[in-house]
Amino acid sequence: MNWTAEHASRSVSPFRQVDHVPMSNPTEMSNPTKTSNPTEIKPAEASSMPGLRLKARFPLLTLIAQRLLLSILLLFAVSILIFGGVEALPGDFASTYLGQSATPQAVANIRGELGLDRPLVSRYVSWLGGALQGDFGTSWASKNSVSEQVGKRLGNSLFLAGFAAVIAVPLAVGLGMLSVHFRDRMPDKIINVLSLAAISLPEFFIGYLLILYFAVNFGIATFPATVYEDMGLLERIKTIALPTATLVLVVLAHMMRMTRAAILSVMSSAYMETAELKGLSGWRAIVKHAAPNALAPIINVVALNLAYLVVGVVVVEVVFVYPGMGQYMVDAVTVRDMPVVQACGLIFAAVYILLNMVADILAIVANPRLRHPR
Amino acid sequence: MPEPSKSLLSVRDLRIQATSYPPGEAPKRITIVDGVSFDLEKGKVLGLIGESGAGKSTIGLAALAYGRGGAEITGGEVNLNGTNILALGKGGIAKLRGARVCYVAQSAAAAFNPAHKLGDQVIEASVKHGLMTKDEALKRALYLFRVLGLPDPETFGKRFPHQVSGGQLQRAMTAMALCPSPELIVFDEPTTALDVTTQIDVLAAIKHAIEETHTAALYITHDLAVVAQISDDIMVLRHGKTVEYGSVQQIIEAPQQDYTRALVNVRQATRKEAPDQSRPLLVVDDVSAQYSNGFKVLHNVSLHLCKGQTLAVVGESGSGKSTLARVITGLLPPSEGKVTFEGETLTPALKNRSRDELRRIQLIYQMADTAMNPRQTVRDIIGRPLTFYDGLRGAAKTARVKELLEQIEMGTGFVDRYPAELSGGQKQRVAIARALAARPELILCDEPTSALDPLVAEGILKLLMKLQEEQQLSYIFITHDIAIVRAIADSVAVMHRGRLVRFGPKSQALSPPFDDYTDLLLKSVPEMKLGWLEQVLTTRRMESAGN
Q1: CA–CA gap between residue A300 and residue A367 (Å, rounded)
Q2: I need a labelling partner for B220 at 20 to 30 A (CA). Which of A57, B93, B242, B247 fits?
């Protein structure tokens, strides 16, 4: 309750609120007792809307719970899309496996063996049921457990993407702030041109360029970037230097430019003028006053790029022969190994949704209006 | 007026220019401030007054050697204690800002950083400039919160900007400016965005704080009645030039220039109310309304309006006065009660209303420029209702548009202009013509003059009255300005927190005995006379002592 509101409520007692001056035509006037009794309405209002009260009391928790629920629903919808999409792909495993000369009988045998003769819905339900328990079935091609393979490969992919993120995110945000500080001057222009060049080249091209110069011409980096289970951390990092550099170059520009745009839009607000008129240094104004307000859009673009790192790693893994999820999935697609393709698709989707959900929640938490309700 | 030699701030022949980029033309150099000179002594207040575009904010910011939005100080001197601050380097200016000269912005809500606590922002400049330690600054902030009458001064600084009201924010902004004990504060319309009942408190707090701390101030406003309460001297500006410069007493009581006289005498007119208010055109019968989330915004409102008359609906922001207009237009269907028009119940929801029902009630908005499509010409804007309601096209439509332009006293030359080429007052006139094009019986005017300068607003009000007389129009005029109510209304409805507090013919509604709220509202409206603020505050103190 603020001071002015208190003041006003003190001066207006609820029973003297309607003070109708006599009119020449009183027939249309309302019944004053009805108008002046607010207690008639208030209890009904409060009790009829428990949901509203909960929402009003914990706005932050309600919003976060909403995001969680939405994400789960979305993941469910995506699972249907993946299953249906893979099902709708032309060609099938049996004919690819047996080659062109296969007899119809042999194809039917294999289809029966893999359970492909069962109706679509029942296959979806059993697949989803298994997936929920972490069991993605058996690979048709290798007869290995998909979950086991995915476990190893996912670790590799996340390591590569994570390492790239650790370098790219602080670098992008830092460069973004730097280019705001020097906006429209030389450093800003250089940063902009370089980042535009990096974003304009496709990642496989950057990959091959890096291989050409650093692995072939100068011989200071390792290629192929194949890692093994018993590798030490340092050796592992040295091995993945080139794919990491490729990924960083690809995502850096987008994050950097969005950081710059977010901070610049904050810079034009009245409170930044206040900071300037307080005689604060330009750097302090950016770090202390602009950055916290630019946080939500920056978090969003960072999450989008992290998701891209995990998913977009597919091409980079193939280029660098890195044993991650991407390569696993590409191999499976070529032989129509559906359980593997479906598992990879679902995991990629889950990572994407999870990262976006985290970004949403962080952006909600970063909003002082929601963090500190009135 | 002070001697130049003794003055704290001495501005000499100030000239400020900017480059404007009109669409489709070569960039132009425009002069915002031209040859302005004044002096300000320690502990004194100089009021800068003028309409928008007069250059008053630009002069205020020049005292901090700052040019907003590309404005450049191209000539003259700004001497602070004998040093020309325009000649200082970047570092010297930064040392000055927030330490020796501070600025209070019009919208404190926008000028505070939403991400930081109020207390941290209030003491930031003092600590960063090394004027005091953090503890000393906190102590001073606490003292200032007390002086400015903020609630719970001990914990006030721990709140975020969105957690306090607009009036409190404006006072916190004043505390922020006072914290480093500056020699000069520039107040840029500090109470313009506030309700009148809040404005008087903030005004009193600012005046008290200035007296308490012996700080000199530049007080910028477009409201002469406000500046008369707080200043020692007044400078009247127009188009970047000085019109008149003198003591408060001279300006208010013996203005020399025609322009100043017009400002002093604005809205002195009072219209005689219609004697017969017994045959209602519009009846609002026991109407309540709520938002879709169940929040109730209007509680059992009943009132009526007669043909050819004006009902003024008065209240502060959040009082429900605009919601009432939304209910009458059907934008927000009432949850209880009904609205009747010429004895017939109006369809509650806009989308179910017949074309004729729509035609009879039209709206004019506060912000004429956002209520018009910037890519349509005046002909399209006014012509649209002509086609929609009357099926007019081609030459017949253009002829009618020109006729309407004559009615709003703008002339037919404006037919092919775009809104961006019109002034604020002209845009509002076009909005009026658009409403008239539908041949309405009732026009709802939602604060149509509050974004306009006083003299322009006066022109719009006169136009509305003329049209009313010619066409027997009825108006519901939503406003927070009591002076406008006195000037145009036949009957008055006072709203407060979604309820109707008072309703009746103007002569009775605006004369005692008052209910508490109407009393507070009427007493808070600044009057164009010296010592009004002290008088009100004294009465208040005596009343609270009497209680």
Answers
A1: 13
A2: B93
